[in-house]
Design brief:
With 238 residues, this protein is of the alpha/beta class. The chain is built from six helices and nine strands. The strands form two sheets. Strands 3-2-1-4-7-9-8 form a seven-stranded mixed β-sheet, sandwiched between helices. The protein has a two-stranded antiparallel sheet with strand order 5-6. A hairpin with a 2-residue loop joins β5 and β6. The protein is globular. 42% of the residues are buried. This is Bacillithiol biosynthesis deacetylase BshB1.
Amino acid sequence: MKLDILAFGAHPDDVELGCAGTILKEISLGKKVGIVDLTRGELGTRGTAETRDQEASAAATILGVSVRENLKMRDGFFVNDEKHQREIIKMIRKYQPEIVLCNAIDDRHIDHAKGSKLVSDACFLSGLIKIETELDGEKQLTWRPKVVYHYLQWKNIEPDFVVDITGFNEKKIASILAYRTQFYDPESNEPESPISSKNFLESLSYRSRDLGRLTGVEYAEGFTVERYLAVNSLGDLR
């Protein structure tokens, strides 16, 4: 299955938090989108790996993605080495995305920056013909995505561009709330975490509203880039 966009997250819910609105919009425009989670989020303060599996599946259904896979790397302890890079390369060559979305380049959780660099490095290596990989017993063809974009997470990193997600924020929040164990629930007996507060849940919408305010739309999501953006003409810019 060839995908237009492949979104990677260090943990289940990273993609939903960072770029679910963009994914929903692209799918509405006819694009095929997939998600690959690096870990099962087993070190999370709330819930278990098993509940996260179920929640990730429910969120994928809400988003309408074509596929979702989990590489089952060790939460908190995966590293950017050849072994882990090859696992990412297999996914890139399997789905041949034109665009890759991945974690923020710097963030509160150490896995986010690690995952960001791991995926970015693997995107480059995936295009080298002398790196051979096999999947299900078949040799894979080389593939390098055209671009890699990094979504925003906990930290307020200044974006290089934003995507208008007006009309998609409500469904984005629904996909996030599919992770029932992770986010604000006044009836939960789970320990509190930095992302389980009401303030954090509300911040997701007011960040999107603020990025929208700054760019003349209602809601927007921000991304950083690895190389200069280019347009055909000034008329392409809003």
